[in-house]
Amino acid sequence: MTAPKLLVIQPDESDPIGPFGDWLTEAGAELDIRLLPGQALPSALGEYAGVVCLGGGMGANDDAAHPWLADVRKLLSKAVGARIPTLAICLGSQLLAAALGGAVAEGDQGPEVGPGLVSKKDAAWTDPLFADLPLMQDVLQFHNDAITRLPAGAELLASSPRYPNQAFRFDRCAYGVQFHIETTPEIVLDWARQSPEMAELTRPDALTPENLAKVHADITETWRPFAHRFVRLVSGDLAPAAERQRTLPMA
């Protein structure tokens, strides 16, 4: 059987695919990683069975400084239109939301930084990727901006008290997660060094190497099977979400 090929869009050198890439490949996927803007995006998606878009330090609408972001949004929209399974992480989720008509802005509750929990919403219990996750999931947060409005028709899958739009699905197989599930303690410590003003907003012991090691062990336990399910979805071994039932108003 041919390994399903995934296009991995990496908008920022500081946020590689990390362990999440290992989980994808151990489940049988082949990764084509494009580090932007140095490596060009493909002009078409015909050779890819799935798309993953990672995070970065720029804003989802920061086209003035990063004009290639428009191409990322266009490609994500094309993947969704072709019903190619797509998973977008942090900045990636914001780019996906913006590409589909949602809204992204600086978070009005301030940055969300450090280890945290998100909780499943009703739609998650019947979702092919989210159904088997625990009610509360360990994640890593590190963002200023937030998705302030989901695209029309999107299903909310996970929330947190500060920012409700933590995970969503659009149509049957396009997913965005505001949080990080691909990091290592070293990557997070590097972000903290680069953005000390954000790092100091979390509790003092949250970003120690010891605590981050424990948190990432919990993230692995939860999200490694999720990565495996995504490869099954990409491969056609796992059915995508059911079509939404459109009901007419009562007469």
Automatic annotation (TrEMBL):
It comes from Amycolatopsis orientalis (Nocardia orientalis). Keywords: Glutamine amidotransferase, Transferase. Residues 52-185 form the Glutamine amidotransferase domain. InterPro entries: ChyE-like, Class_I_gatase-like, GATASE. GO terms for molecular function: transferase activity. PROSITE patterns: GATASE_TYPE_1. It holds the Pfam family GATase. This is Glutamine amidotransferase. One of its GO terms (cellular component) is cytosol. The keyword Transferase applies. It comes from the Bacteria.
